[in-house]
């Protein structure tokens, strides 16, 4: 009789612990962390890379400050107020252009997997080339607003920017 009583108590305790754990999951119900992958695809990091869908909806019209990078870049490049304004304009224009290309690329990738063809694959590759081209052009624009003293910091800025892009 004593053993049965102990077993019942253990089962009740385990059942209560399970209910508490399930309740905790339901109450917090936080989503897995999101990140932006190598080619701008945002998703949930899983064992095999990106799982999820691309997108940065809700951030239209302004340059997202990836973990304070714009501010850090301004400090790193030692930009004055006028240069900061130009830098911000260049960054916003670049971001909008890249977002537009990413949207086109996302749509084409969806089309490709619905109906694979070499022509769609070529279009996807062309968009990736455009993204690289416009990023290089953006870097050249940024470099063009720097004076000689600030140019010494440009390679460090470019390296940090590439680390963010290739994350």
In short:
With 167 residues, this protein is mainly alpha-helical. Helices cover 68% and strands 7% of the residues.
Number of helices: 6
Flag low-confidence runs: 35-64
Average pLDDT, rounded to a whole number, is: 79
- Secondary-structure arrangement, i.e. CATH architecture of the largest domain: Up-down Bundle
- The CATH class of the largest domain turns out to be Mainly Alpha
**Principal-axes shape call:** elongated
Biggest sheet: strand arrangement: 1-2-3
Number of beta strands: 3
Biggest β-sheet, characterized? 3 strands, antiparallel
Helix content: 55-70%
CATH topology of the largest domain: Four Helix Bundle (Hemerythrin (Met), subunit A)
How many domain units? 2
Order of helices and strands: HEEEHHHHH
What are its keywords?
167 residues; mainly alpha; Four Helix Bundle (Hemerythrin (Met), subunit A); 3-stranded antiparallel beta sheet; 6 helices; 3 strands
Question: What can you see in these coordinates?
Answer:
By secondary structure, the protein is mainly alpha-helical. The chain folds into 2 domains: 30 residues; 103 residues, Four Helix Bundle (Hemerythrin (Met), subunit A), CATH 1.20.120. The protein is 68% helix and 7% strand. The protein has 6 helices and 3 strands. A 3-stranded antiparallel beta sheet has the order 1-2-3, with no helix packed on it. Strand 2 and strand 3 form a beta hairpin. The radius of gyration is 25 Å and the shape is elongated. The termini are far apart.
């Amino acid at each position: 009789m004593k053993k049965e009583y102990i077993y019942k108590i253990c089962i009740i305790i385990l059942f209560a612990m399970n209910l508490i754990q399930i309740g905790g999951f339901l109450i917090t119900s936080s989503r897995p962390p999101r990140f932006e992958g190598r080619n701008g695809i945002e998703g949930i990091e899983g064992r095999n890379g990106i799982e999820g869908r691309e997108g940065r909806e809700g951030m239209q019209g302004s340059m997202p400050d990836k973990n304070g990078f714009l501010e850090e870049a301004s400090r790193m490049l030692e930009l004055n107020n006028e240069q900061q304004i130009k830098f911000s304009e260049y960054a916003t224009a670049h971001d909008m252009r890249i977002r537009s290309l990413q949207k086109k690329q996302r749509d084409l990738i969806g089309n490709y997997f619905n109906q694979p063809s070499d022509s769609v694959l070529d279009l996807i590759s062309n968009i990736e080339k455009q993204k690289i081209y416009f990023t290089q052009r953006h870097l050249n624009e940024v470099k063009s607003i720097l004076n000689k003293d600030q140019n010494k910091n440009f390679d460090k800025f470019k390296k940090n920017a590439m680390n963010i892009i290739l994350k």
